[in-house]
Amino acid sequence: MRQTATGELESVFVTSGRCYRYEIDYYLKPWGPLGIPPPNIYRIGIMDTSNARNRGYDYGILRIGGEVVLAPSIKNIDSPYHPEIQIWNRNLNPNIHLGIHLCKSGYHTRVNCGYQRSNDALFFDQIDPYKISYIINIDNNRQDVGGPVFQFLTLSTASSSYFGILTGGIGNIGLTTRIDDIIRLSGVFLVGVGQ
């Protein structure tokens, strides 16, 4: 969610700013069971260009104007026990140390987990450099970019704490932008379960 200049709340979707392609419509193509194409594709809206690639951080904000309904959960339909992972809050632990277990959900590689390998790096690509908050050894694909990065709070109830978004990767190295940086720079706020 985000507060507009008039004081109203609007629903927004956070993704990678690297997905920005001028004034085009963006769509949600939910993944279904492996090997079965999704039944529907949903229009989300247009990306705020003012927030894309802001101040060396990779994130983009999509204003939701289509038929997408937000839910504070992460899709995990490959699990017979927990087809949705509940998002309870953003990461509230100030001591993020190397070796913690983080997971991500991506369109191509689905939900998988790895360990944090490094904090705060600078990544250079063909366009420009941007700041990386966490480097994780995690399987990823370019179609996963913009997906949520999270940590399980409990496995028994499949609840999670939201850390940020996957902004890229090289092989099995995933690059993440911290949700706190996105909140600070963009004015969005996370809506979790029960909020």
UniProtKB/TrEMBL annotation:
Protein name: Uncharacterized protein
